[in-house]
């Protein structure tokens, strides 16, 4: 219920290598819309945490059920006089511990693979992330960013206040993700002005006149980030190469400016991107492809199904009681019901 959340897509891309061969690499795309309003910074971070917990490509409950079945209800103790020596008992405990440890690691890897942070997949996250440059609305006569490069209020001077950059670098949101340098103006909030016939058209597209909305600080709410090639990968190239990261022109149908990212993604196979063994140290111990920032919620799919049922109930109720088509359908059903009752008498 609500209009905030995320949707994800995972695809295999086949490309041609420099030597003419073919390779496949996996791409994961997450489109998201986080909480609005300047003062909702903690809620935006919480939205992202909820996405990491609940957005999976397989129901985690199906992975956890076999483990629950195999877990003993209690720890069995050897009976007296069973002939076991203390050494044999200790050895058995160690073997059980090692087996349990191996099963736990295998389960963690499987949960990691169904998460958005799958180690063998390139990850891109974009959308209306709604991070602002202030936690309060602007007062009257507030200083707004300017597009004039000679102005002391040029928009580039305001980017230091960007909440997303600060929260991401502090490890509170968009964990492990990178972003190309932001050189475009704020993408929100625009008031579109009436058409101006004197403004030039480029390729038949109107140059839409606009001003920043006075009741919201302009901010870089619309962003695209990516998870770069992991540090343990030894195959060249080892970086995603950003070609362009910019904002599209203002359009009449939105108070945002959409952004786009063009990047060259290395054709790295699942084996080339594979995570190192737990015993191998890495340069970045907080990489989300090694350890998830938050635990996956095993009941997320059931809650999503329950929310979907509520949405269907509310949607059909609103359709039937607040639209002409719904009223016509209700009247038809009543007429058919009344006619059936009359004919049965």
Automatic annotation (TrEMBL):
One of its GO terms (biological process) is phosphatidylinositol dephosphorylation. This is Inositol 5-phosphatase. InterPro entries: Endo/exonu/phosph_ase_sf, IP5, IPPc. Residues 62-92 are annotated as: Disordered. PANTHER family: 5-PHOSPHATASE, PUTATIVE (AFU_ORTHOLOGUE AFUA_5G07600)-RELATED, INOSITOL 5-PHOSPHATASE. GO terms for molecular function: phosphatidylinositol-4,5-bisphosphate 5-phosphatase activity. Residues 1-269 form the Inositol polyphosphate-related phosphatase domain. It comes from the Eukaryota. It comes from Colletotrichum higginsianum (strain IMI 349063).
